[in-house]
Amino acid sequence: MTSVAIAGAAGRMGRSILKAVSEDARLQITHAYEQIEHPLLGAEVGSLTGISSPGLYLSDSIEDGDFDVLIDFTSPSSTMSNLEFCHAKNRNIVIGTTGLDTEQKVKIKNLSEDIAIVLAPNMSIGVNLILKLIELACRTLGDSVDIEILEAHHRHKIDAPSGTAIKMGEVVANTLERNLKTDGVYSRHGQVGERQEKSIGFSTIRAADIVGEHSIWFAGLGERVEISHKATSRDIYAQGATRAALWLASQSNGLYDMQDVLGLSF
């Protein structure tokens, strides 16, 4: 059986992960963490979701944890701190945190030489399927179409565009040999001029309680292909993270994503 620890366990995402992991007989929750001074620290973990977890309490210190895999959907600074601990203790980690900067991503890559890491901005099985479909669409349509990425999330999301939208843009850029740093267009206002041929456009909506919606347009003259995904529950991310944790437990050192977990890396 694979022992699992969960960071950010008292949040909405953390509670979904607790429930998903508890429902898989191949996994066992051994530790759950939250930030220092969180009002629920010390609470029995079962009281957060209704799962059975006798003797398991919400802690503010990862230092007392003994586990095989950590699932982390927190913040960039917290994730990097937890990653350092996992590296020092030779434990694997599933990272679903978004908003990581280039330096942090480079560090994750470097540390993956010693431990196994799954890094994915979106753990949804459906989203990772459409990433493969985006690659296929790019290979089929090439530079003959204009490509625009649209995403919508709840009002409390702090990073934009979403990590999933950025990943979609990276798939486009890598497939069509473009540079997302120079070809990505994240804001249009005023007299911006004509659309550049190889632009990868991004549009962002933040409103109410939208869980997550992503679409990509391949717009040509006379027709448009759209690939879309709409999430109505955060449970899909928790289920993907659970699948990633189980898969990661048997992997050698390296940096992986959900395409690897789902067998879509071909």
Summarize the structure.
The chain has 9 helices and 12 strands. The chain has 266 residues and is of the alpha/beta class.
Describe the structure.
The chain is of the alpha/beta class. Helix content is 35%, strand content 24%. The protein is built from nine helices and twelve strands. The chain has helices at 12-22, 46-49, 76-89, 102-111, 125-141, 163-176, 180-183, 235-248, 258-261, and strands at 2-7, 27-33, 58-59, 69-72, 92-95, 116-119, 146-153, 184-185, 200-206, 212-220, 223-231, 254-256. It has a seven-stranded parallel sheet with strand order 3-2-1-4-5-6-12, with helices on both faces. A five-stranded mixed sheet has the order 8-9-7-10-11. Helix 1 packs across helix 8 (235-248) and helix 5 (125-141) packs parallel to helix 6 (163-176). The longest helix has 17 residues, at 125-141. The chain starts with a strand and ends in a 5-residue tail after the last helix.
Q: What's the total helix number?
A: 9
Helicity range: 25-40%
Q: Profile the largest sheet.
A: 7 strands, parallel
Major sheet strand order: 3-2-1-4-5-6-12
Q: Helix and strand succession? A: EHEHEEHEHEHEHHEEEEHEH
Q: Briefly note the structural class of the backbone.
A: alpha/beta
Average pLDDT, rounded to a whole number, is 96
Give the end-to-end Cα distance, rounded to a whole number of Å.
29 Å
In percent terms, what proportion of residues is strand? 15-25%
Number of strands: 12
**CA gyration radius, whole angstroms:** 19 Å
Assign an overall shape. Answer: elongated
Which residues form runs of ≥5 with pLDDT under 50?
A: none
